[in-house]
């Protein structure tokens, strides 16, 4: 199943008149080889069409000490890619009638205090519960390396919280603590440890050969990719991730994702219509409005979904100190893409966009290359000069109100925008127009100087 898509077929890149043909495998490989070598950590890229594996490209090493290379069977710490599978585990119990999305979680977790408003299963799943982030609590409690934390220690901190961060159901706030509690609800309803239930209900029937959830245990040496960060020109090992599951904790390979894509598209052993209805239904606030993740998408069952430009997308990222991942489905096209990286100095959303373009599948609304040039706003009476600086965007602001030029460095985000504090710049389908936002100030349109002068 996996090997069938590895050959690749040459396709044309560049202008309509270009005669150069580039093998898409080589084009994708170049995206990850530009700042890496065979003796550095790297990434594995997978493309899928209607459940069929189109292409898998791996570059770099899983273990720099031994020289072991990344391949389709290499296990990665999934970080927040885990959340869709934690939500899936809960959804299987909902589909069986053993759990309800509207259940008060204190029915299963009586250790929690009675909050001002009951927290429901749906609120945990959609990040609207107000449950505080467990990793933040661990760090504030003095644990610098959260990889040393046990599930019991993380749960104890959550159970100690006297109230939620806000009224449950009234706002969106991404919470690892909420997903840790969701996994604990699954364990108590199923009567089995969370990792055991996930293996029986998800990984085995879906035919995922290597995937499993961690359960306060060490990893088997030689089976997984170590995480690395770059410091002073060298790579340092960073396997600093919790060994418990719910918010993270999933160990998976590209072979596992290939099997999962096949189940979603064709076999439906796990991804049944009932499960799809639960996981693809966007959350709602108490007032009935859709949950907005703050990046222009709704949040459903461990998945962001909505429009990027004119394209429907279902997506989620995963990030730990030494790991950066991205997962994207294009339901209108029946296409899916996965990126697993064991180097923390790369931004997954940027590499995802570059690999999409290299494979001949550009997506409206994702960053492909930084916009450049001079843009003007009549409303601000200001010029914004944009220049690429690696993946970042160097923005120079000049106006009659400024004391000289103000230079800001905007960084690309997973939402298709460039960010500097509360400010962000968003490319549009028109390369001559950008949208500038700051907090809740509303949209300011920036128009490329050359076009403005022509008018």
Automatic annotation (TrEMBL):
In the UniProt record, does the keyword Oxidoreductase occur? no
Start and end of every Beta-lactamase-related domain? 34-355
Presence of keyword Hydrolase: yes
Q: Signal peptide: which range, if any? A: none
Domain of life from the UniProt record: Bacteria
InterPro entries (alphabetical)? AmpC-like, Beta-lactam-related, Beta-lactam/transpept-like
Q: Keywords in alphabetical order, please.
A: Hydrolase
Any one Pfam family match given in the protein's UniProt record, by short name? Beta-lactamase
User: One MF term from GO for this chain?
Assistant: hydrolase activity
Q: What is this protein called?
A: Serine hydrolase
Give the species this sequence originates from.
Altericroceibacterium indicum
């Amino acid at each position: 199943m996996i090997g069938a898509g590895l050959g690749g077929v040459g396709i044309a890149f560049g202008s309509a008149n270009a005669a150069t043909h580039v093998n898409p495998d080589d084009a994708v490989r170049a995206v990850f080889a530009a700042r890496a070598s065979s003796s550095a950590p790297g990434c594995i890229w997978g493309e899928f069409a209607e459940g069929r594996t189109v292409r898998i490209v791996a570059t770099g090493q899983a273990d720099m000490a031994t020289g072991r290379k990344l391949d389709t069977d290499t296990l990665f710490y999934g970080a927040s890619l885990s959340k869709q599978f934690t939500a899936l585990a809960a959804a299987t119990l909902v589909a069986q009638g053993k759990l309800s999305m509207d259940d008060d979680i204190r029915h299963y977790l009586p250790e929690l205090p009675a909050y001002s408003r009951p927290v429901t299963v749906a609120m945990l799943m959609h990040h609207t519960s107000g449950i505080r982030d467990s990793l933040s609590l661990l760090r504030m409690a003095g644990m610098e390396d959260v990889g040393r934390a046990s599930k019991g220690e993380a749960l104890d901190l959550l159970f100690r919280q006297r109230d939620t961060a806000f009224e449950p159901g009234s706002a969106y706030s991404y919470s690892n603590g909420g997903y840790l509690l969701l996994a604990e609800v699954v364990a108590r309803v199923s009567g089995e440890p969370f990792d055991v239930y996930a293996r029986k209900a998800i990984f085995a029937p879906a035919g995922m050969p290597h995937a499993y959830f961690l359960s306060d245990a060490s990893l088997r040496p030689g089976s997984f990719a170590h995480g690395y960060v770059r410091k002073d020109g060298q790579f340092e090992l960073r396997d600093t991730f919790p060994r418990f599951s719910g918010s993270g904790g999933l160990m998976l390979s590209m072979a596992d994702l290939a099997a999962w894509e096949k189940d979603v598209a064709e076999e439906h052993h796990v991804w049944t219509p009932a499960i799809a209805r639960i996981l693809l239904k966007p959350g709602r606030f108490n007032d009935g409005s859709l949950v907005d993740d703050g990046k222009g998408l709704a949040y459903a069952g461990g998945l962001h979904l909505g429009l990027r430009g004119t394209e429907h997308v279902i997506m989620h990222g995963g990030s730990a100190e030494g790991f950066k991942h991205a997962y994207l489905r294009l339901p209108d096209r029946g296409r899916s893409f996965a990126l697993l990286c064991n180097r923390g100095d790369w931004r997954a959303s940027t590499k995802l966009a570059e690999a999409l373009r290299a494979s001949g599948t550009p997506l409206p609304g994702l960053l492909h290359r930084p916009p450049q040039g001079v843009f003007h706003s009549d409303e601000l009476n200001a010029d914004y000069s944009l220049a690429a600086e690696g993946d970042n965007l160097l923005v120079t602001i000049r106006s009659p109100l400024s004391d000289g030029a103000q230079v800001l460095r905007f960084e690309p985000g997973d939402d298709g925008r460039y960010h500097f504090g509360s400010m962000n710049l968003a490319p549009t389908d028109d390369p001559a127009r950008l949208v500038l936002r700051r907090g809740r100030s509303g949209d300011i349109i920036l128009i490329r100087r050359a076009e403005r002068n022509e008018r």
